[in-house]
Specification:
Elements (H helix, E strand, L loop, with lengths): L2 H14 L4 E8 L5 E8 L4 E5 L4 E8 L1 E6 L2 E6 L3 E4 L4 E5 L3 E8 L2
Antiparallel strand pairs: 1-2, 2-9, 3-8, 4-7, 4-9, 5-6, 5-8
């Protein structure tokens, strides 16, 4: 599997979709402990505030994103790894972005 090819495909889908989003499960699923999801967001789009699904990291494959939890803000760009806090949080795309979300459900 090529994450680069998958990122390119979903970045194109996100850009063409009215929601500005596209995603695909890369590994696992709701019935597994480990789950990896590729998420593409068009610039200016976001994932609204939501609960942390378990221990999680966000690897930025392309673009720039901002993770917000309460008063804490983390900026990430291509190649950065962000540890998602155990708190409600949101994700914003500062520019067209693709991230790999890895979750281990507790």
């Amino acid at each position: 599997m090529s994450l680069d090819a998958l990122a390119r495909e979903h970045a194109n889908r996100a850009g063409a979709d009215t929601t500005g989003r596209s995603s695909a499960t890369v590994f696992g699923g709701h019935e597994r402990v480990l789950r990896q999801t590729l998420i593409a967001l068009a610039a200016g789009r976001s994932m609204s505030e939501h609960e942390n699904p378990g221990e999680a990291t966000l690897f930025v494959l392309r673009g720039r994103v901002r993770l917000i939890a309460d008063d804490d803000v983390w900026d990430g760009r291509s190649g950065d790894l962000i540890v998602i806090p155990d708190a409600r949080h949101s994700l914003e795309a500062v520019e067209d972005s693709v991230v790999l979300l890895t979750v281990a459900k507790i």
